Amino acid sequence: MTQLRFATHAFVCTLLFVSLLATQASGDIFNDSFADGDRAATGTMDTNWWTSSSSSGIEASAGSLGLVTGTSGRGIHTVFATQTLANVGDSLIANYSFTAPATIGSTSSSFRVGLFDTLGRAGLNADISASSSSPNSLYGDTGTGGTEIGLPGYMLDMDVNPSAGNQDFNFRDHNTGSATGRLMATTGSGSFSSFSSGPDETYTFGPGTMHTGSFMITRISATELELTAMLDGAMYSVIDSSVDSFEFGFLGFHANSNTFGSSNSQGAPDNGIDFTNISVRFTSAIPEPGSAGLLIGLAAVVGSRRRKG
């Protein structure tokens, strides 16, 4: 009887564990191809896109979402259901593809991708205006005399050059206590702390060419995150051992002035980059339910063997 109770207990524990596994399923949070020609979410895998600094910084057409920059530094962003990297091995990856315009500048640290914790600020899910003269507290503005802390998270910035050169990747940690209310539009006033820059890479932002990149964050220990950047085959990783948050729900893109395009006007040719697909995917370290089913079978076998013994 004791062996039977033990086997039953083990089987129930296994079922509870399998139940937990099922709640940790991996999958796309969103996967937006902009086929609807709308920056609003109209499909089940779409997401809403907003301007991050200027109302003129975004345009949509069938199959693409434009980041309108040219002679102005501008950004766009989306807010998605907060994802928690709770377990070692959990990952969040943002994938994106875009076409570069005819005019490309030669600038450093000027194309930026960011993943941040929203801190539950509902106002981020809207068009946002922010500038050096009018910082926005939604991003945090402690560095300009405000009281709202900055959004925890990271920014990947890339050098831009139309020809092969010494461009590289760089990761930056947003300093929650020195935020300037502009988020990805500036790295000044102590708003970001830079990790070591990567080695010179072979990627090239060719005029009119398609580029594919990704920004992945993986929990590698109880206290550490690994940040990985990829663009057209080039790759670079760093480790953050002083993590502010393991939660992320904000994805943003920003381009500095004179980086992409010769015009900053919506609808004008050569006015920025056109994204053709952007997705965010969560990958769990916990096995999928299909794999967990094997555990149920093993538990049943163990219970059977104990009863026979």
- Per DSSP E runs of 2 or more residues, the count of β-strands stands at 15
Quaternary form: single chain
Helical content stands at: 10-25%
Please describe the biggest sheet, giving its number of strands, its sense, and whether it closes into a barrel.
Answer: 8 strands, antiparallel
Q: Helix/strand-derived class? A: mainly beta
Strand content: 35-45%
Residue runs with pLDDT of under 50 for 5 or more positions: 1-24, 291-309
**What's the overall average pLDDT, rounded?**
87
Q: Give the termini separation.
A: 11 Å
SS field, number of helical segments? 2
What would you report as the Rg, rounded to the nearest angstrom?
A: 23 Å
The shape, in one word, is globular
In sequence order, what are the helices and strands, one letter per element? HEEEEEEEEEEEEEEEH
Describe the structure.
The protein is 13% helix and 35% strand. The protein is mostly beta strands and 309 residues long. The strands form two sheets. Strands 1, 3, 4, 6, 11, 12, 13 and 15 form an eight-stranded antiparallel sheet that branches. A seven-stranded antiparallel sheet has the order 2-5-14-7-8-9-10, with no helix packed on it. Strand 12 and strand 13 (234-240) form a beta hairpin.
